[in-house]
Amino acid sequence: MDSELRDDAATLMALGVLAFILADVAHEALGHGLAALLLGAKPVLLTTCYLSTAGAVSPWIPAAGGLANLALGGFALLFLRWSRLRAVRFRYFLVIVAAFNLFFAAAYPAYSGIVRFGDWAAVIAGLGPSWLWRLLLVVSALVGYLLTMVLVARAANPFCGSREPGSLQRLQRITLIPYLAALAAAFLGGVPNPAGWKVIFTAAVPAAAASFGLTQLDHLPAATSPSLLVDHSPCIRRSTAWIAIAIVALILFVTVLGPGIRFR
Description:
The chain is mainly α and 264 residues long. The chain contains nine helices and three strands. The chain has a three-stranded antiparallel sheet with strand order 2-1-3, with helices on one face.
């Protein structure tokens, strides 16, 4: 592909960082935090990886993180579908916002069911038989993940819409770069966590790794079928504004939310 027509890597990284941070904050602050307040629990510590609370205990508090991601991801897809946006960078930003949120929401139940850790392990705690509930988590996650791949592939179709090698290479590039940037942001956000380095690999990185399906869209006809193509999107050119916003957001994510915000 001509370098002048290639999607800008730095801008793609910025979009990936911002989309992941938005998904993470929606999960921890909007989901868990709002549910805790509504149910009478008191937030104690909010980090990039978890929200600690005191007081009321309810399965709705751990469940609310994934539900918030589901809501935000669905809203991004609906807005993308029904709006008449022309700004290609913002349109693609909505695609990966939907991807990071929906993949995170879909994959988390399987993670909890397999390793017996995390939000959904807390949701099913005390329910029996344990093996059955864990199996239900895994099966529902697999079904949800496949459905999410199709939905995100349809949203990404205008950025590919062809089985031609050049189009497939473009789709691979614009999905892999934001994904790797999100992994890096998740890792950095987990480094200063007060729970120690283990949380990086049990909570921080898995939150971003859950969106691996984003990098596999080139295998799905929903993303590559010309029949779905409406308006082929131009290249994502460099945007100093998007890059600057992503840098500021990442600094705040790592230095403020990384070590955690403590509440009285």
